[in-house]
Amino acid sequence: MTAAPPLPRTTASGRKSTRRAISPHYGARSLVAKIVVHLCVLIGVVLSIFPFYWLVVMSTSTTAEIFGYPPKLTFGDSFVENVRNVVQSVDMLQALTNTVIVSGACALLVMFFDSLAAFAFAKFDFPGKNVLFVLLIATMLVPGSLSLVPSFILMSQIGWVGTLQALIVPGAANAFGIFLLRQMAAGSIPDELVESARIDGAGFFTTYWRIAVPLLRGGLAFLGIFTFIAAWNDYVWPLIVLVNPERQTLQTALQNLNSLYLTDYGMVMAGALISVVPLIGVFIIGSRHFIANIAAGAIKG
Amino acid sequence: MTAAPPAIARPDAPAPAPAPGRRDTRARRRRRRRENLPLYIAISPFYLLFAVFGLFPILFSIVLSFTDWDGMGEISFVGLAQYQFLVTDDRFWNAVGNTFIIWILSTVPMLFLAMAIAFLLHQNIRFTPLYRVAFFLPNVTSMVAMAIVFGSVFSDTFGLVNSAMTALGLDAVPWLSSPWGIKITIAAMVIWRFTGYNAIIYLAGLQSIPTDLYDAARVDGASLLQVFFRITIPLMRPIILFTVITSTIGGLSLFTEPQVLLGDGGGAGEAGMTIVLYQYNQAFTQFDFGYGSAIAWALFLIAAVFAIINWRLVSGRGDGPARRPRARKDSRR
User: Ramachandran region of residue B267, left (φ > 0), alpha (ψ -120 to 50) or beta?
Assistant: First the structure.
């Protein structure tokens, strides 16, 4: 018998305690069934994780070891050498710095501008509000690939080709985040608080900073992580607009490494590892929050 | 969460008691305008940015698609010539076909697998939070790095997959140089990346189905299969549609995987050339901005057709369950 209350806080709804009595789960009652379920899930987990493991294996091996047959499935000891080769071939450190600047700036700007707009939409009335909000939703339906060519031409006209602000400014506020935070603000900021702040003579921006921001912390954290990850992984737009080989993001630098030094697999894999590890760190720190919000967004949206 | 009342209107009683009279209404209007100003400032960044970096480029791309321009010389207007060429361009239609084949090869197994995983994770087992993180991890990692990893795993000569197949006595498959091999490899990457994401969404959907429905069914003596097809699937329909829609959007804009795996040319015989990759190829390696824009609008048209089909699927046929979430959303707005 397994009375199953492990990590109760991590289950989505806190229904755990009542699950047993009214369980919809026909399977997983006997020990055997439980083991079978775990085995199936574990196969999936292994398939999910394996490419990461394999990335580490390859980035610690020499190219000769990677090419060998039968393939060596364990870690090698050439990691330091591979990383040294990467740093000597492409300016990975500069690319890492650029990526951190772009992702961080995008995340901060989006958190600020989106929450400001979301608070105004959620808790105040003003002429034209509904039309503006519908317009905002409509912009979400426009596919991004439609504007790749003219956006590049625009950037070249204003002299932003090859600069980092070409990656930061266009995405500094987005409809998705405003919509998300508006829904959260509508539910989590009590009208009475906004009202009493008004009576105390606080202006909109004071109310935003003192009341909305603290109450929207959870949503802001999610939006920040989401934006950070998306900006970190963005590829098409940096590929087009960052024409200067000295100023690249990790993704484009990695692709350069890949196409220029295709034969040195160990080195390319070390570069790939460098581009992946910081992001996995960010994700694991914020994962609980992140996954719950992704799922909730899909259900409600 | 408590059901939130609709956003409060501006309170009826402004702080200082207003004296009656015409001059005062004007004063009040002025004050109201002054009070609204911060609100407009608060929402303005998005609209300003969208006007400059969203709306303007889109309108400009309509113009561009009627021109022949390499970005440097004179812009020459050619009317519908780009679109006429597009209709007869075998390379474009090849890209459309590839995009669809890869989309089907990836979406169908992906959503079935995701449903299976969600079902398993819903069995009230231990470590579910840990499993969720593991399944979600592929979705947040850089696709460039992972396309490079997949390129080596599926490599024709030394790849793990072929090594395993040889060890099992099977013939090695030229994954990266045959038309179907290329498509299957790209589909495998998409499946790997998005199965966990969809499974997490399905899991949340399963958890949101009220348990009393299951209890009622069990009291009525419904079998497991009946419960699954009569309760679970109908109630999950809107969520399944959501995942189909997101997979369609993602599938139509597939770019990074084939570009990193096969380069700008789309591989042997352009077997991995997708629509967006072809657009990129024409606009940014051939510097044919006019044709690139025409391809973008053709893709938009295809996406719109899909959107209409999806919308039909939601609003037609589905009686109760499919409507439910939309109604909920409306009431919250």
Answer: left
Q: Is the Cβ pair B141, A7 closer than 8 Å?
A: no
Structure confidence by residue, pLDDT tens digits, B206-232: 988 888 888 888 888 888 788 888 888
From the CA of A138, how many Å to the nearest CA of chain B? Answer: 12
pTM as predicted: 0.84
Nearest C-alpha in B relative to A296: B204
Q: What is the pLDDT of residues B24-59, one digit of tens each?
A: 677 777 777 777 899 999 999 999 999 999 999 999
What count of Cα atoms within 13 Å lies in the side-chain half-sphere of residue B333? Answer: 15
A29-53: b or e for each residue (b if 16 or more CB lie within 10 Å)? eeeeebeebbeebeebbebbeebbe
Contacts by A199-206 with C-beta closer than 8 Å and gap 24+? A199/B15, A201/B15, A203/B38, A204/A120, A204/A124, A204/B35, A204/B38, A204/B39, A204/B42, A205/B38, A205/B42
Domains of chain A: 25-80 (no CATH), 90-260 (1.10.3720.10)
Q: Which residues of A touch B223 (CB under 8 A)?
A: none
ipTM, interface predicted TM-score of the complex: 0.83
Higher per-residue confidence, B159 vs A166: A166
